[in-house]
Amino acid sequence: MNCSIAIQYLPLDGKDDDAETCRIVDEVIAYIDSTGVDYYVGPFETTIEGDYDTCMEILKQCQIVGAAAGCEHVITYAKINYRPNKPVMTTEDKVGKYHEGDPEFADKASLEVA
Length: 114
What we know:
Helix content is 35%, strand content 24%. It contains three helices and four strands; from the N terminus they run E-H-E-E-H-E-H. Mean pLDDT is 89; it is low at 109-114.
């Protein structure tokens, strides 16, 4: 994994309609989930992790998915962490210690059924 991207997708046409804003953002997050990459949803952004090309394609498709969900005006902020020849730190590496006991951050090997 040589890339992680923090994506903040901000639908602008919902204005004061929080339910509509959340509906569109939920569609984008559902798309991210469908890709199979590791991701973490935070209160202000969703972080995806994978190889560079996959992450960039997901970032691009988030705009298209939001538009298909009815969003006609969006601003997206992206923070891209990329190392062409080395792995980047995972979300678990960065914040896992703050979420001990949270199954989202459980050691994947410990979740395997014997």
